[in-house]
Amino acid sequence: MVHTVGQSSNHHITPRYLSVVLTARYVLKPQSLHERDKPTSSIDFRRYANSLDHDTPPLVAVIMTPEEERQAALDSYRQKLIESREWEAKLKNLRLEIKDLQKEFDRTEDNIKALQSVGQIIGEVLKQLDDERFIVKASSGPRYVVGCRSKVDKEKLKQGTRVALDMTTLTIMRMLPREVDPLVYNMSLEDPGQVSFAGIGGLNDQIRELREVIELPLKNPELFLRVGIKPPKGVLLYGPPGTGKTLLARAVASSLETNFLKVVSSAIVDKYIGESARLIREMFGYAKEHEPCIIFMDEIDAIGGRRFSEGTSADREIQRTLMELLNQLDGFDYLGKTKIIMATNRPDTLDPALLRAGRLDRKIEIPLPNEVGRLEILKIHAQSIVLDGDIDFESVVKMSDGLNGADLRNVVTEAGLFAIKDYRDSINQDDFNKAVRKMAEAKKLEGKLEYQKL
Questions:
Q1: 307/320 Cα distance (integer angstroms)
Q2: DSSP class of residue 125?
Q3: What's the pLDDT tens digit per position in 254-291?
Q4: Vertex 183, ends 178 and 186: CA angle to 5°?
């Protein structure tokens, strides 16, 4: 319904009519041709009624239908919803900023406390008197009866546990990890690498014996309990140099995914009395705390040689180191997850006490490979190289009598160098023949190692 309101005297706006108009939600539009389609905001009818005497253009009052009111309400709701979501996004960003600032504040507060805090004393638990009191030995030497902080788990405070003591009250504040010598820690960083038994040729029997001693007790200890026997503690690998003793130990550690300690026996010997024995104790203690663990001691003849009644002070220090090693081997738990592998190319020089049953229960000889073994090793090393046609590896193997696994790997390397010298990208049969002859000549310079089989 449309009403036109003008300045004629016949159209006076009475209060009753004005009341009806105000409750009808009019929308007034100027009745001019160029502004007819332009929307205008609602106007105050009271102001309009007072201005009828002035020269104003006639206006049209339009009453909105229910459908138009519904659409206007929806548009208003949609606009408010968009504004609400914008404010929610801003609020979320502000909360994230507050959270970051809180973290920065906590970190700064911790740094300030660290700068203002007093140091603590390192001690060792000797004995537990009751639920609240412990006898501890401070690093300076004296012993004290002290209390324990409520947040510290008292069940873990066993004899020998390293703790931090308050500087004033000597109260146990926290537990500390076991003290580890830097040399032992560097041993634990040794990575056995991705070595598989498939990459070892000519040692099938030796691999089977080694896995029976090391792998089987770690994976299936219930088999030994069921039969009623005790698994071996360790194994000795002996044989000429370059036959794969270290490679076998790495393959075992890699297949089991255990911790691996590679110990160079000559590095254990220290010039100060007692330091070598202490290093042996820490090494075995670290292995027991990080089970399952495999300790590989290469060149064990450096500290495991026969003991003599006469000798210098250095010889006596080596003997003390050997006695500590024997003591640690005797203290091993049979079903523990710590195994030891020793390797040497001089088994005839080892002390009989080290070789007796109960310490090194199995001795595995790693001999020079025979013709079949050399063929397997040569094919393994030739898998990753570029070959020119078919290579007769059997003829190469027949010329490689007396070569070990390391020599055969060097044969492949020398053949590749011959190909590089001739500006070729592949290795042919002639390169292998020249390489194996060169290695056979160099092998004559090495002395032949003779030892009695254990």
A1: 10
A2: E
A3: 888 788 888 888 888 887 888 888 889 888 888 888 88
A4: 90
Residue 95 pLDDT > 90, yes or no? yes
Query: At CA 358, angle to CA 355 and CA 359, rounded to 5?
Result: 50
* Joined tokens for residue 434: 């020249």
pLDDT at 339 over 60: yes
**Cα distances (angstroms) measured from residue 38 to each of 44, 64, 68:** 18, 16, 17
Sign of CA dihedral 13, 14, 15, 21: negative
240 and 367 Cβ atoms separated by less than 8 Å? yes
Q: How many CB atoms lie within 10 A of CB 56?
A: 13
Q: Residue 174: beta bridge partners?
A: 164
Instruction: Report whether pLDDT(86) > 90.
Output: yes
User: Who wins on pLDDT, 134 or 42?
Assistant: 134
Contact 400/436 with Cβ under 8 angstroms?
A: yes
| Contact between residue 303 and residue 257 where contact means Cβ atoms under 8 Å apart | no
Predicted pLDDT of residue 62: 56
List the domains of the chain with CATH numbers.
2-63 (no CATH), 121-175 (2.40.50.140), 183-365 (3.40.50.300), 371-443 (1.10.8.60)
Helix axes 429-443, 405-421, angle to 10 degrees: 130
pTM (two decimals): 0.65
d(Cα 358, Cα 329) in Å, to the nearest integer? 8
Among 323, 309, 341, 169, residue whose Cα is nearest residue 245: 341
Three-state secondary-structure class, residue 124: strand
Torsion of CA 142, 146, 149, 153, to 10 degrees: 80
Give the model's confidence band at 416: pLDDT under 50 very low, under 70 low, under 90 confident, else very high: very high
**Residue 394 structure tokens:** 């059997």
Residues 58/28, Cβ–Cβ less than 8 Å: no
- Report long-range pairs for 278-281 (Cβ below 8 Å, ≥24 apart): 278/181, 279/181, 279/183, 279/184, 280/321, 280/324, 280/325, 280/328, 281/324, 281/328
Whether 232 contacts 329, CB under 8 Å = no
